[in-house]
Amino acid sequence: MVHIDIKKTGRIPDGGGWRVHGKGSAEDKAVARTKKRGARSGYVFLHSAIDGYSRLGYSEALEDERAVTAVAFLDRARAWFAAHGITQIERIVTDNGACYRASGFADAMGESRHQRITPYTPRHNGKIERYNRILAEEFLYARTWTSEPERAAALAVWNRHYNYHRPHGAHDGKPPASATPLQVNNVLASYS
Question: What global pTM score does this model have?
């Protein structure tokens, strides 16, 4: 069983936002002026998938949350899980977002059964919601970022840390990769 979700987070302006320069600073006011003129920084959508048994997590920072993007993410996530020995996904659990209700997403799931949670009950997809909270606490807001490319590059490093080094309570303090069928132990291997 794989849990999938999208976390919408604000895009960081080049040079850093108010977290770097402080609220009310000249840089913060300059960003506010550009917003009034109609230019918006926008959002980055963190697509995440987590295996229900091993808690192995995979995340990517993508430009939108359309069905085409979600399907491409699902394909890459399947390949990434397969590299770790998780080759058969019996069930995919998602919320009721438009990208997950699209026919293209249903076609991309193949043999997997799609389980959508009850509307307005995120606890039914609790594993990915907890992963999103860890992602926010330990990655998104753990330090200040000066640009969006810097944060996007650091996401791959954080993914490796989460999967291969960070202790997990579900595995007696061992990292999630310790519970996978294939023991992938090269932390610097490129799994993008």
Answer: 0.84
Residue count of the chain, please give it: 192
CA distance 125 to 45: 18
pLDDT at 80: 94
- 8 A C-beta contact, residue 141 and residue 133: no
Eight-state DSSP code of residue 5: E
What is the rounded distance in angstroms from the CA atom of residue 50 to the CA atom of residue 94? 11
Measured CA to CA, the distance from residue 110 to residue 112 in angstroms comes to: 6
**Cβ–Cβ under 8 Å, residues 176 and 168:** yes
How far, in whole angstroms, is CA 116 from its chain's centroid?
18
- Buried/exposed 11-23: b ≥16 CB within 10 Å, e otherwise: ebbeebbbebbee
